[in-house]
Amino acid sequence: MLRSHLINIFLIVLAALALIYGAIYTHEKLYFYIVAIQIILGLYLIYAFFTSAIKSYKEWRYQPSRLR
């Protein structure tokens, strides 16, 4: 379960990085606010899913069945 969760998180982070990359390299002055929103959204996705991964790992690490 942990492995599939980490794979999903990796894919989401990859998508967020692609969003940031696309925002930086396809920007125009007219759409500057859209680029800023894309970068902020991408950074938020990375932050949210890394914190989710840490929380899931801590829950998995302290399972009673694993501690035996």
Note the main attributes of this structure.
68 residues, mainly alpha, 3 helices, elongated, 0% strand, single chain
Overview of the molecule:
Helix 1 runs antiparallel to helix 2 (32-61). This protein has helices at 2-25, 32-61, 64-67. By secondary structure, it is mainly α. It has one domain (2-61).
Number of strands: 0
Largest sheet: none
Backbone CA Rg: 17 Å
Task: Figure out the total of helices.
Answer: 3
Bin the strand percentage: under 5%
Q: What gap, in angstroms, lies between the N and C termini?
A: 19 Å
Structural class: mainly alpha
Mean pLDDT: 74
- In total, how many domains does the architecture comprise? 1
Low-confidence stretches: none
